[in-house]
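User: Predict structure, ligand S-adenosylmethionine.
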Amino acid sequence: MSPSLEHLIENEDLGIEILHPGGLEITGELAELCHIGKNTKVLDIASGTGESAFYLVQNFGCHVTGIDISDSMIKRARKKAIDTGIIIKFKKGDAHDLAFDDNTFDVVISECAVSFLNKEQAIGEMVRVVKPGGSVGIHDIYWKESASEHMKSRFAEIERERPETLEGWGDLFKRAGLVDVIMLDRLSLVQRWREEIKKRIGFTGQLKIFFKVFRDRGLSGLKNVRESMEIFQSQHLGYGIIIGKKP
Ligand SMILES: C[S@@+](CC[C@H](N)C(=O)[O-])C[C@H]1O[C@@H](n2cnc3c(N)ncnc32)[C@H](O)[C@@H]1O
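Assistant: Predicted complex:
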């Protein structure tokens, strides 16, 4: 497995449960923009440790199903459901091929995940399973116009992420058949997130990452992690919310 920074943060048990910039604040904003309310049937694609699903159920009174491709994420999320007694179904599943019928959910969301995926296919699946009139919403990183092709291809190699520009995300949504598409810039949340992650990982966590990468991948692995960190911290990446409605 490539020593991508994302992968390390997700899998090295660093005590980080919310795996997207903006924390639950942006999850709440996404929910409001998608008109999630009492009894709304929501699908959260790539639900990670389930933090957002619990937040949505507790704060919006909706019903959430979470799917994620990772066994360990599903296990962590299910444990929380057992510990809290809150009923949320977490199923293993692939965002590219959802095991749900057409027009099943009122709202389909995916937080900080579509950049990792075949975007057309994943958005196509979101549109397929949402009901007519329902919202599809994501938040994800985006490239600013200033990002070079070299930076984009290095980021794809190291992190396996292929973000769009904010306009590009909007175009993808429109091409998938969504209407009333809006794109909102939430760049300031990334800046706060960088500081938060640094604090949460702490010095011990940073050492843990350093030794793991060095052991598995040697110096070239460390070089990649450093390059990736520089891209994450550069002025060429932004963060945005994209919402559309199925006609
Ligand atoms: C950056 S994390 C975001 C997790 C969660 N949405 C959050 O914001 O906390 C990306 C998640 O995408 C999941 N993932 C990656 N590829 C996937 C796929 N093809 N189908 C479903 N989930 C996937 C990973 O297992 C991981 O949990």
